[in-house]
What does this fold into?
Amino acid sequence: MAAPKGKVQNPNGRPKGIPNQTTINARGAIAAFVEGNTNRLERLLDKIEAKDPAKAFDCIMSVVEYHIPKLARTEVKSEVQAKIEIGWKE
It folds into this structure.
């Protein structure tokens, strides 16, 4: 039976923002793979870059996003209204 909205079945469970064990293990495995295969990955990227530098960049970014998580966007709201002038005065 599901808990009603706003109620938690296990109040002593994993704190919000802490990844679950599967995520921790997956990130650790990816980090170990990257660290253990750095030379092979560099050679592979060099071959890709020689043919298509943009594709090599995409490959690097796709690996990095699993090793270093993306930051969430943050919206800043302010009650203060201010006029901003951009320009140079001589």
Remarks:
- The chain has three helices and no strands.
- The two ends are 72 Å apart (CA to CA).
